[in-house]
Q: What sequence folds into this?
């Protein structure tokens, strides 16, 4: 039985952080695709401000 091409690439494992490559804690909003740990390091350079 042959697996369809689109079924081969599904799920959380295919989306990875652009910086470190992990697939855990990924921020996908605004098409960032950066994990939350890397986001804390680069947020200021992306013009995000901390509130609270």
A:
């Amino acid at each position: 039985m042959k697996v369809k091409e689109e079924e081969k690439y599904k799920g959380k494992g295919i989306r990875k952080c652009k910086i470190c490559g992990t697939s855990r804690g990924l921020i996908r909003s605004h098409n960032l695709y950066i994990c939350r740990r890397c986001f804390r390091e680069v947020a200021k350079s992306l013009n995000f401000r901390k509130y609270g």
User: Anything to note?
Assistant: The two ends are 55 Å apart (CA to CA). The longest strand covers residues 26-27. The chain has two helices and two strands. The longest helix spans residues 36-42.
